[in-house]
Amino acid sequence: MCGLTTLFVGAPASEATGMLFRKHIEELDRMALGVNGHLDKLETERPLQWDIRVAQVAPRMADFDKELPPQRAEISGPQAG
If you ran DSSP here, which 8-state letter would residue 6 be given? Predict the structure, then answer.
């Protein structure tokens, strides 16, 4: 064994540590790619969600426009002007 501690058969400790480190880095790279892909998807969906919410609010705002003037007139009487 040439006096070197081995973690894997035939691999010196420093080489084995390097192999483990590279494996860990590769795993982190894969995770980062997955996270970036998910963030890209969310960024793509964000404008669509905004449009959907606006579309849902618009009919309700139209209802308010119809409901509020009669309620104001009831509360404060007819407005001059």
Answer: E
pLDDT greater than 80 at residue 13: no
> Is-contact 11 2, C-beta < 8 A?
no
d(CA 34, CA 7): 31
* Token duo for residue 69: 């003037």
This prediction has a pTM of: 0.43
For residue 37, CA distances in Å to 28, 34, 41, 44 come to 14, 5, 6, 11
CA-CA distance, 29 to 35, in Å (whole number)?
10
Distance of alpha carbon 33 from alpha carbon 36, whole angstroms: 5
CA distance 68 to 76: 12
β-bridge pairing 6-8 and 11-12 = antiparallel
In the structure encoding, which two tokens stand for residue 33, read together? 């790619």
